[in-house]
Specification:
By secondary structure, the protein is mostly helical. It contains six helices and no strands.
Length: 113
């Protein structure tokens, strides 16, 4: 397995674990991902969230409470991509995950989530 594949696998496992917790741990998931992997491209976080959501979705039967965790992962991924797009429209740097922090000063949704 390549180093890239190991990094992706580690991130996806982290996201799955957080999404499947019974508490509201998913709320801080994107912030925690930015803290853990600040130098990664921000859309890599979205890719990780979609991969985690897809893995959850394919592992649990329809009607399972875990399916809501998958939907939450897809929602978070969509919101990350919206933030990156907004940053591009505003001419902000958006090539690193930690650049999201500057955008969250403008739109504090993830900061308050």
């Amino acid at each position: 397995m390549t180093m890239l594949a190991l990094r992706i696998e580690e991130r996806v496992a982290f996201a799955i674990e957080r999404l499947l917790r019974a508490d509201d741990s998913w709320r801080g998931l994107v912030r925690d991902m930015v803290d853990r992997w600040p130098e990664e491209p921000p859309l890599e976080l979205g890719f990780t969230l979609v991969s985690a959501a897809s893995a959850i979705e394919s592992s649990f039967a329809e009607g399972s409470p875990a399916r809501e965790a998958a939907m939450q992962g897809y929602r978070l991924a969509a919101l990350v991509s919206m933030d990156v797009h907004a940053m591009q429209l505003l001419g902000m740097d958006c090539d690193r995950a930690d650049h999201l922090l500057a955008y969250w000063d403008i739109d504090p949704f993830f900061a308050r989530l």
